[in-house]
Amino acid sequence: MAADTRAPTPKEGQKTSTRQQDPEGTKRNIIEVASQEFALNGLSGARIDEIAAKTRASKRMIYYYFGDKEGLYLSTLEHAYAQVRAGEAELDINGLSPIDGLRRLVEFTFEHHHAHEAFIRMVMIENIHHGEYLAKSSLVRDLNVTAISNIRSLYDRGVADGTFRQGLDPLEIHWQISALCFFNVSNRATFSKLFGRDFGDSEAQERLKNNTVEMVLRFVIKT
């Protein structure tokens, strides 16, 4: 039976007045809770009933805003990527030297991924789905075009002033940065268990961040 996506009437729950007063806040609240549920249980395991119970919204309101569970899942992915790109935009790396700009970008990526483990788990889940849902999102594609253009601008400035070596692909630089910072979250628990060292403690994280910055800079800087 198809979900009822009509807007709930005031008689359909005590949460209605809050929704009417702040619909955007309600949607943000739904996305925040849903992000945790999807990260923990995946697309198939997450339940709209459970999400509704933890938000200011009813189940019908979730369907009203997002259409269905897959629509909500895609919205959480878009929100997660938008957070990363918004943080990058605040760095103002164009006002820094190419080396300092790249260093700051790597540091930011490492720190953001460490602080947003749900984002990493959601990306892992989306990879299980072979990127099927991200492929439907023009928003995410546009966001990532901007991310690569920023790295290209930084790299081109470094090549022009003789700091960076020629012949590198900005998209592949982005890949390497993402890979190093992503692995720090996705495989930290297993690495810690396998080798008997807590890679999550503050000292280890600081070392790993510095190592990641150094590896990327050594890859890009002209020698």
UniProtKB/TrEMBL annotation:
PROSITE patterns in the cross-refs: HTH_TETR_2
DNA-binding segment(s): 47-66
One Pfam family in the UniProt entry: TetR_N
Keyword Zinc tagged: no
Highest taxon in the source lineage: Bacteria
A single MF term (Gene Ontology): DNA binding
Location of the HTH tetR-type domain: 24-84
Swiss-Prot/TrEMBL keywords: DNA-binding
Region Disordered: start-end pairs: 1-27
Keyword ATP-binding: no
PANTHER family listed in its UniProt record: HTH-TYPE TRANSCRIPTIONAL REPRESSOR SCO4008, TRANSCRIPTIONAL REPRESSOR
Protein name: Transcriptional regulator, TetR family
Natural source organism: Devosia lucknowensis
